Amino acid sequence: MTYPKLDELVRTVARLRGPGGCAWDAEQTHESLVQYLVEESYELIEALEAGTRDDIIEELGDVLYQVLFHADLAAHTPGEEFDIEVVAERMTAKMIGRHPHVFGDPVAHTADDVVAVWDELKAVEKPGRTSVLDGIPQGMPALALADKVIGRAQKIGVLDKDAIAAIPMQTEDELGGLLLAIVASAKAQGLDAERALRSTLRDLQGEIRHAEIPAGGQ
């Protein structure tokens, strides 16, 4: 199967960034584009959660364009010099390597089995990681970061999954109302909910790293 429209988009990016193209596009850097990648990602999330088919197509295109833009930029940046083909090649190899139960002999019948396989493979791929927290981007929104950190804390027994499920709720609507009420109450009392959660997460991550210290190694 070929994708002529995708190839056409790649050529369009190259034309815009090349000689005689768009002056703004030509001046951009990886760093200057970060704000647009974040914005487009959030717009895609909104489209996936509440948009129409056309909204999703448009926002997927905007995120795809950011990927192609960064790849074209790298192709013309000394010391980087890779293009979208290299990105695609690397990602294909990564996905095949991460799915030996599909492309190889190991068996993984359930989603939990797949996660276990991924964890084992990542441990081999990234031997320099010494903590379950390694690889978590600290710049994530506080709630998303909390979800990640809590998952890692449960993995090593710092938090008990059943013990922390103490607030009764059955739907995301109920959860959303509860979160909104917490933020509203914090605002009314002059408190910053985002900063408060990040501060608590730093403490929790400290507990996790302390728990990972081998016995006798303190």
From TrEMBL:
PANTHER family reported for this sequence: NUCLEOSIDE TRIPHOSPHATE PYROPHOSPHOHYDROLASE
Domain (NTP pyrophosphohydrolase MazG-like): residue spans on this chain: 28-103
Name by which UniProt lists this protein: XTP/dITP diphosphohydrolase
A biological process term (GO) from this entry: response to stress
Alphabetical keyword list: Hydrolase
The species this protein was found in: Agreia pratensis
GO MF: nucleoside triphosphate diphosphatase activity
CDD domains: NTP-PPase_MazG_Nterm
Keyword presence, Zinc-finger: no
Domain of life (superkingdom): Bacteria
Keyword Hydrolase: yes
